[in-house]
Amino acid sequence: MGGNTPTIADSYSGLLLVISSGRSLWDDLKKFEETFKRPYDTMGVNFAGMFFPFPLTHWATLHGEYFDWWVTMRKEMYHSQEVQTHTNTLMSRRKPTMAKNVWHMPNVGGTSGMFAIKVGLALGYDKVVLCGLPADGSGHFYLQDAGNTTFGSNGQIEEWANAEEIILKGESRVCPAILSAG
Fold first, then answer.
1. pLDDT tens for residues 113-143?
2. Does a structural domain hold residue 71?
3. What's the domain range around 133?
4. Counting Cβ atoms within 10 Å, is residue 145 exposed (0-12), middle (13-18) or buried (19+)?
């Protein structure tokens, strides 16, 4: 990882559900719920953390400057409990004031989803299941009519295509919900 690793590293185990903003989120969650039973922890990614109507254990983003707004809105909408927030020193544009855990992680693929995977593994989870993270540019669940996202720059595609070599190294603990269900 490099730099100062947050003290929270290696302090979790078990199953981590990572929810992101991809158009497939709600379908992926249905498949997840058909396959996995509690207990498991949850990690929201970016805007998805605001809309997920169940408790979050963690919330990760490369846009730490938005945590102030996101966390405030989530508390208003769901009267939610405290959540462990995570961001990366290398990507945030401004100093995040509500990020409790600031990581120093290179090679996060230019996406908050890749960062969330790395954080989940660094936290010590035995299995990380991805929902709403197709990494295919198909759009966001909250903008159904807006078309595709800008995901897909050459750098992002290369990072995700090489994820196994870059961060996972044959890591079998990470899988999309759709593969877990099959």
1. 888 988 999 999 988 888 887 666 555 555 5
2. yes
3. 15-181
4. exposed
User: Average model confidence (pLDDT) for the chain?
Assistant: 76
56 by Cβ neighbours in 10 Å (0-12 / 13-18 / 19+) ranks as buried
User: What total of structural domains would you count in the chain?
Assistant: 1
CB 9 within 8 A of CB 123: yes
- pTM, to two decimals: 0.79
Query: Does residue 172 form part of some domain?
Result: yes
Give the whole-angstrom CA distance, residue 172 versus residue 168. 8
- CB crowding 5-29: b at 16 or more within 10 Å, else e: ebebeeebeebbbbbbbbbbbeebb
Rounded to an integer, what distance in angstroms lies between the CA atom of residue 104 and that of residue 114? 14
7 located within any domain: no
pLDDT at 26 over 90: no
Q: Tokens at residue 149, please?
A: 């996202």
The answer to the question of residue 9 being in a domain is: no
Tell me the sheet residues that pair with 41: 16
- Residue-wise pLDDT for 75-117, tens only, equals 888 776 788 999 887 655 556 567 889 888 876 666 788 889 8
